[in-house]
Amino acid sequence: MAYATINPYTEEQLASFPTATDEEVKAAIDHADTAFATWKDTSFAQRAGILTRVASILRERHTEFAKILTMEMGKLLTEAEAEVELSAQIIDYYVEHAEQQLQPRTLPSADYREGRAKLVYEPLGVLYLVEPWNFPYYQIVRVGAPQLMAGNTLLLKHASNVPQSALAFEKLFKEAGLPDGVFTNLFASHDQNELILSDPRVKGVALTGSEGAGSAVAALAGKYLKKSTLELGGSDPFIVLEDADVRKAAQWAVTGRHWNGGQVCVSSKRLIVVDAVYDEFLDAYRSGVAALKAGDPTDPETTLAPLSSRSAVDILGTQVDEAVKAGAHAETLGEPVPEHGAFYQPTILTGITADNPAYTTEMFGPVTQLYRVADEEEALKVANGTPFGLGGSVFSSDSARAWKAASRITTGMVFINHPTGVKADIPFGGVNRSGYGHELIDLGIHEFVNIKVIAEPDIDDAF
């Protein structure tokens, strides 16, 4: 498994890094475990002070950090700068709220009369983070910030195409004063996952990635009885009801499907539009997509980024070809994308039936699945007709109706009159094949802590 930076726009390899040896992996676990012995006893104030410096450095040098993201995975520089800011906001959240969220909680106990029972939250130890390339900093911070505030230490295995993003964050933590061994970047191979998870000092794993990667790592976590969270794929429904503001819905659909080059697990991948407004919506959506400008992601005029790699383009092309062979219609939109770089022409797929492989396939890139449905009931049926369950959207001018419809969509999160979004203070997680476990806010900080009951019965109590 090679770790290398290949610029998706120029397709030039800029750097490569050797994969860690087994001895280096074992040494990193030793170091992280040694660091845990001290880090777990630091105060919340000490931890918060270091993370506050991390957020400050991110904001002071936001363009510097953003350029690394654009160079490695191709996202628009403006979107990269937004990711840097979002990462700082997540850190802000846990600096402010982690201590309160981990305070011991008194349990009512009638049997103890004058005694006491409390829930106490304790860090577990070394955690293993396996993270993807599409949001290189956010993915680190989403899990890392709460767990560092909780007192755990971290080993990071980042995606092989964003090694400099991983190194930048390791360097950032050290610059901010994080003690050695508390956060360690590892250029580990897939084969070394078992070496890491079999070590008794490694207490849990958090993975964001593909279903295949999630299944493999979850199997190892189960084999070695380790706590785990998985955030996997998504094929989010974007429902437009007949009473929606159609123009607004179409504008949000263009954004929701194409931000980050369409390479987002919560992209609005399946647009499900009620028949009464379908034609109006399609006209507006076509115009919006056609106006996107593909090009240099560092150019402020560019609005459509390249995909992360040439292989990503090939995978997407194969998926579209298979959908068309199974009866779907493909319509390309906009000016031709550049011939150089990892670009894919924006495409709308219509006529997808339930037996078409596209119906249950996640597509990472600027390809839209568009479904025409008779009414709200059919829209909900299509929305729930996939094995995924990460996010979703409902557009309606009737808030009560939208909330009711949202409650019937089987996903980890649903947004009203907005594409599925990523916010610093909203839980993030899914169901079904989209994974399990929520990250962010108090749900996230409790994922990898030991929840202990400490009881002090009255002296006369008998068990």
The average pLDDT value, as a whole number, equals: 93
Number of helices: 14
Question: For the terminal residues, how far apart are their CA atoms?
Answer: 56 Å
Poorly predicted runs: none
Tell me the structural class. alpha/beta
Please state the CA-atom Rg, rounded to the nearest Å. 23 Å
What fraction strand?
A: 15-25%
For the largest beta-sheet, the strand count, sense and barrel status come to: 7 strands, mixed
Query: In what order do the strands lie side by side in the largest sheet?
Result: 12-13-14-11-10-15-16
Give me the count of strands.
18
Q: Which shape, going by the Cα principal axes?
A: globular
Q: Work out the helicity level.
A: 25-40%
Describe the protein's architecture and organization.
With about 475 residues, the protein is an alpha/beta fold. About 40% of the residues lie in helices and about 20% in strands. It has 14 helices and 18 strands. It has helices at about 20-40, 45-60, 60-75, 75-100, 135-150, 165-175, 195, 210-225, 245-260, 275-290, 310-325, 375-385, 400-405, 440-445; strands at about 5, 15, 105, 115-125, 125-130, 155, 185, 200-210, 225-230, 235-240, 270-275, 330, 345-350, 365-375, 395, 415, 435, 450-455. The strands form 4 sheets. It has a 7-stranded mixed sheet with strand order 12-13-14-11-10-15-16, with helices on both faces. Helix 6 (about 165-175) links the parallel strand 6 (about 155) and strand 7 (about 185). Helix 2 runs antiparallel to helix 4 (about 75-100) and helix 3 packs across helix 4 (about 75-100). The longest helix is centred in the first third of the chain and has 25 residues, at about 75-100. The mean pLDDT is about 95.
